[in-house]
Design brief:
alpha+beta; three-stranded antiparallel sheet; 3 strands; about 45% helix; globular
Length: about 100
Amino acid sequence: MPPHKVGRVLAQSWRKRGYLLYDLPMSMRISSQAKTVLNVLAERRCHLTAEEILSSLDNIGMATVYRALDHLTERGLIRRLALGKKIAGYEYVRDSHV
């Protein structure tokens, strides 16, 4: 199985068991900045743009936020949504909407 699919399946199984974001296994290799971005998305119940995520963070630059968003999307932890021609929103992948 390709590495990106292994990460996605592993993340889904951890979410189903109810583990918290910071309990993800070390094999996921997520930077501390990416975990911070992931926590921002997980705390909110709506989609956010990269600029909205950046405005809620300190000491993280725009390039770092975009790299983290790309990495988390590849891992299957977040979903990218096309909100317009040049705007993308991101949301935390949940098993069910509450």
